[in-house]
C-alpha cells in the first residue's frame, strides 16, 4: 500500500507539473455551459496513452483515495441508501467499485474511454461481483438517458481533463453530461488534487445548477492535499 501510494503521488506531481507548464484555462471564455464539442478530445495524453498503459500494466492502481478513505462521503452521496444507483466515471482499474460492492452497494456502473481496462475489470469481477457493470464510453458524450443516477463519482477525471487541450470546453461538456444523467437532488462527488482556487470556477459555470461545497481530505503520510467537491443537483 505504501509503495503504491508513493507511486501515486509521483504521478500526481508529474500531472501537476505538466498542467503548470500550460496556460490556465479561462473559464469565463466558455460562457454558458453546454455539450457543444471541440475537435480534439482532452484526455491528457490521449486515449492511446491509457490503452497502452493498461495493456502493459494491468494490475489495479488506486488513483488518489480508495474506498476506506471515501466511505463516509459515498454514504452521504447515496443519502444512506445502499440501493442508490451509482455512476463511476473514468474508472480505470481502481478497486473503488469492488470496495463499494463488498460494503453493500450493488448498483454501480463504471465507464472509461479505454476499452482495455473495461475488459480487464469486467473479467476480474465476473464471478465474485456479477452485478457490477462495465462500459466503454466517452464521459463527455454519455449514452445514458437523463436523470437515471443517484450519484456520480469522479476520482481525478477532471484532473486528467485539465491536463489536455481545450481544458475549459472539455470540462464544461463533461460537467453538463454529469448534471444531465443525475436525478433531481443527485450528487456529483469529485475527488481531486486541484485546490478550490483551480476547481470551483468550473463547478459554478452558467447553466450548471449545482449547490457546491468542498472539504480538504486528511493528508496521508508523504502525500499532498486532496479535496472532495460535493455538488448537489438543484431543480
Task: Write the topology of this structure.
Layout: H1 2-21, H2 47-56, H3 67-77, E1 86-89, H4 96-102, E2 108-112, H5 115-125, E3 133-136, E4 149-155, H6 157-162, H7 167-181, E5 182-192, H8 196-203, E6 210-216, E7 227-233
Parallel strand pairs: 1-2, 1-4, 2-3, 4-5
Antiparallel strand pairs: 5-7, 6-7
Helix content: 25-40%
Number of helices: 8
Strand order of the largest sheet: 3-2-1-4-5-7-6
Structural domain count: 1
The major β-sheet equals: 7 strands, mixed
CATH evolutionary superfamily: Vaccinia Virus protein VP39
Question: End-to-end span in angstroms?
Answer: 41 Å
CATH fold name, please?
Answer: Rossmann fold
| Rg for CA atoms | 17 Å
Q: Low-confidence parts, pLDDT < 50 over ≥5 residues?
A: 1-43
> Can you write the helix and strand succession as a string?
HHHEHEHEEHHEHEE
Write down how many β-strands occur, each being a DSSP E stretch of 2 or more residues.
7
SS-based class: alpha/beta
What is the CATH-assigned architecture?
3-Layer(aba) Sandwich
Quick one: CATH class?
Answer: Alpha Beta
What gross morphology would you assign? globular
